[in-house]
Amino acid sequence: MSELNISENVCLAPYSTFRTGGPASFFAEPSNEEELKEVYRFAGEKGLDVFILGNGSNCLISDKGFDGLVIRIGKLMGDITHEPGEDGLVYVTAGAGCLLSRFGNYCADLGLEGAEFACGIPGTVGGAVFMNAGAYGREIKDIAVSVRYLADNGIKEISAGECGFSYRTSIFDRKQANGEQPVILSMKAALKTGDRVKIAAHVAELRQKRTASQPLDVPSAGSTFKRPEGHFAAKLIEDSGLKGFALDDSGAQVSPKHAGFVVNNNGAASAEDILRLINYVSDKVYMDSGVRLEKEVRLIGEFGGEG
Length: 307
Ligand SMILES: Cc1cc2nc3c(=O)[nH]c(=O)nc-3n(C[C@H](O)[C@H](O)[C@H](O)COP(=O)(O)OP(=O)(O)OC[C@H]3O[C@@H](n4cnc5c(N)ncnc54)[C@H](O)[C@@H]3O)c2cc1C
Hints:
about 300 residues; alpha+beta; Uridine Diphospho-n-acetylenolpyruvylglucosamine Reductase, domain 2; Uridine Diphospho-n-acetylenolpyruvylglucosamine Reductase, domain 3; Uridine Diphospho-n-acetylenolpyruvylglucosamine Reductase, domain 1; 3 domains; 6-stranded antiparallel beta sheet; 4-stranded mixed beta sheet; about 25% helix; globular; binds flavin-adenine dinucleotide
């Protein structure tokens, strides 16, 4: 197995920003598309379940880990290039493993506007396409032109229109829910040239807003819940008196800084502890407001009652 670079029994906690997660039976971090295809084939031959992991910044990974092959798309698959188009736009292509912050800064350094929102999101380009990540009124949907991905029947490239982007979801999310395992390889984005100084100032302003309002120094997966139609999750949670709330001393807590974030203080809580709190918050908000919060955070692996 070593020529394929697949490890066995790898603890996933370091690969999740929540800092939870037991072992993956198999774990691979391919450094290029060829290696990725080989590990993908290996999983098919062995009949293994596959999970594609980016930066693990939107995942709550089970304490029992993942019984199958985790393929982590890391920075070795994160090349980034650009070329001017005949239409005056600049086309930036980023590999799935490229961190969004790097992508956003690359665009800003070139004086390209429209990707500033990406600078503070701690995911990869692949995870951001999958989730249609966004912030401060902009999302991946606004800049993506096309996406290349690997499926059972080879590599495909589809237009952004075919990606089925809507609020924090995409066609890749729906395919995964159907048991398929598409692997996003790269995204091409179109951006227009702007004023480099203004763009840098915009990046700094958004970073400042984020630092002021979010608990960035504590493990979490960002917003725990999606924004319910016509409401804000954080406001509903605060109205239920749950800002700063903890069920026990496990370390799982509704952030006292931002009620929309469940945090894992000191990384001490288990995934089950965190999920128990998430479910408690969801039920209490439902009882108080009639609004059912939907998890934005994805549960990976098996949990007590939920998998
Ligand atoms: C402090 C903090 C702040 C955050 N702020 C924001 C924010 O402002 N806006 C926002 O939208 N999100 C935010 N998030 C959540 C998270 O960063 C985004 O959802 C991000 O897009 C997830 O990317 P990832 O690479 O970490 O994906 P992961 O968490 O690794 O995976 C998420 C999903 O994408 C799939 N996936 C990942 N990579 C691929 C790939 N290459 N091919 C196929 N499927 C793939 C996984 O299978 C999984 O289902 C925040 C998180 C944290 C911790």
